Amino acid sequence: MDLSLLGGYIVSGLLVGVLVGLTGVGGGSLMTPLLVFLFGFKPATAVGTDLLFAALTKTGGVWVHHTKHSSVDWRIVRWLSLGSLPFAVVTLFALNHFAKIGKETTGMITLTLGIALLLTATSILVRSILIRRDKNNGVVVEVEIEEALAENEKINEIKRGRFNRWQIPATVLVGAVLGVLVTLTSVGAGALGTIVLLFLYPKMLTVKIVGTDLAHAIPLTAVAGFGHWMLGNVDFVLLGSLLIGSLPGIWVGSHLSAKLPERFLRPILAVLLLIIGLKFISV
After folding, report:
1. CA torsion angle 114 116 119 124 (round to 10)
2. Residue 112 neighbours by CB under 8 Å, 6+ apart
3. Mean of pLDDT over the chain
4. Residues 6+ apart with CB under 8 A from 98
5. What does the pLDDT read at residue 154?
6. d(CA 117, CA 33)
7. What's the count of helices (H) and strands (E) in the chain, helices before strands?
8. Rounded distance, CA 51 to CA 55, Å?
9. Could you tell me the residue ranges of all domains in the chain?
């Protein structure tokens, strides 16, 4: 293994980790394009490696949300997983089938990756608006939710949802879409997952939205990543190098986020992802 190349992987993990810590945007949106365009990895290998990378790096975040903030709604995680995990497996079987009959899947993954990045860029901007609105009304919303929970927690879950009695099927359906998208591209478990939860549960506190989305991303990326491993789409030297760089990077970025203006960083990142997405589509 070329040491300079290994160092490049570590530095890339560090830079992506810093950006993730600064902006909260999932690493897949940044890491997969970097691996494809800068290092020349095949899209399938970039996606498979990044999925296992995401499963490992997100675990610590969920632990914090669950133990310190109690901000994971495990019922919503189960509803999302009911849709996402089976469809992730179905997508993996489809990729395996195409590989066996000799059909090239690179073009399909590249196109889907481009679309996912465009959606992510849009969701970053929308999420900033919704979170700003939520912060302005945060105290009122928190009081309303606490009162409703005290009255009847199960009914409150439905009331907080946008689709009333159809809330659970809608959540499962969204999970299914995320399952396919994340398995094909490794993009969507973070930024897109957050935005769909903000849409489905508009009265839910932002910290709980983030914690719940993070908790759902772990089994989804783990299942999808393991499936890609079985398909031979994971580079473990690359994975280890990215982890070495990204873990301290996330720590640094998280500390810098309190000092740098997020309202400037997110639009810049959104424009960058928009440009990258367009490049993927035009390949």
Report:
1. -110
2. 181, 184, 185
3. 80
4. 104, 105
5. 47
6. 9
7. 12, 0
8. 6
9. 3-282
